[in-house]
Amino acid sequence: MLLVAAALAFDVPDPTCTGSKVTFTSTLAEATTWAWAVDGVKVGTSDHVDWKFNDPGVVAVTLDMDTPSGAVHEDADVEVLVGPDVTLAGAIVVDAHEQTDYDTTGPDGLTFSWAVTGGTLLGDVTGPSALVEWGEQSQGTIEVTATAGNDCAAVEHLDVAINLPEVGDGGDTGDEPTDPGCGCATGGAPAGAGGALAALSALALLRRRCG
């Protein structure tokens, strides 16, 4: 088939970094099929492809497409930069209203941003550590984005289980109500009555006393 010349027909993420997923997207509207390859290895057949680079360097990304006018071949040399290697540590089982510290480890020179669900960030939210007060939801999350000077970023995430406070069911306390007119229990026979005859006698006595 005829090779159709065209401007670069897919988007290249900028920056492209190790450790982070990037998406390459075809921009040729008339294309009907797509075949992506990274360094000669086929990686996808839709109009976009997600990829994660493990090593820095220059990588060849190619896209072959069919169009009504013929075949189109596109290629680009993509520079893959070194992304920051960051870890996030902290409790993943907490109590409601507990204040919990979360810490990152990684190289110097990073900038940080934090996000949380199911709780509230307290104090500084731009440093390598964060303090969270958890709310009254059964689940929460905490996420940190660490960005290096080359604009490469790493995102770390923790799912957090939140123990909720116990709530009383408002049930029966076990105490028998009393009649203020005579001080007698209005329920059945008094506790401790032995045998059926004793229970009947006690009940009859209560009825005479309480009217």
Keywords for this structure?
five-stranded mixed sheet, 211 residues, Immunoglobulin-like, mainly beta, 3 domains, 18 strands
Order of helix and strand elements from N to C terminus: EEEEEEEEEEEEEEEEEEH
For the terminal residues, how far apart are their CA atoms? 108 Å
The helix tally amounts to: 1
Residue share in helices? Answer: under 10%
What Rg, in angstroms, do the CA atoms define? 35 Å
Mind summarizing the main beta sheet? 5 strands, mixed
* Total strand segments: 18
Major sheet: arrangement of strands: 2-8-7-4-5
Count of distinct structural domains: 3
* SS content category: mainly beta
- The top-level CATH class of the largest domain is Mainly Beta
Question: What report would you give on this structure?
Answer:
- The protein is mainly beta.
- The chain has three domains: 10-81, Immunoglobulin-like (Sandwich), CATH 2.60.40.10; 87-163, Immunoglobulin-like (Sandwich), CATH 2.60.40; 181-210.
- It has one helix and 18 strands.
- The protein has one helix spanning 195-210, and strands at residues 10-11, 16-17, 21-26, 33-38, 41-44, 48-52, 57-67, 70-81, 87-89, 93-95, 99-105, 111-117, 119-122, 129-134, 139-147, 153-163, 178-179, 184-185.
Q: What are the SSEs and their pairings?
A:
Blueprint (H helix, E strand, L loop, with lengths): L9 E2 L4 E2 L3 E6 L6 E6 L2 E4 L3 E5 L4 E11 L2 E12 L5 E3 L3 E3 L3 E7 L5 E7 L1 E4 L6 E6 L4 E9 L5 E11 L14 E2 L4 E2 L9 H16 L1
Parallel strand pairs: 2-8, 10-16
Antiparallel strand pairs: 1-3, 3-6, 4-5, 4-7, 7-8, 9-11, 11-14, 12-15, 13-14, 15-16, 17-18
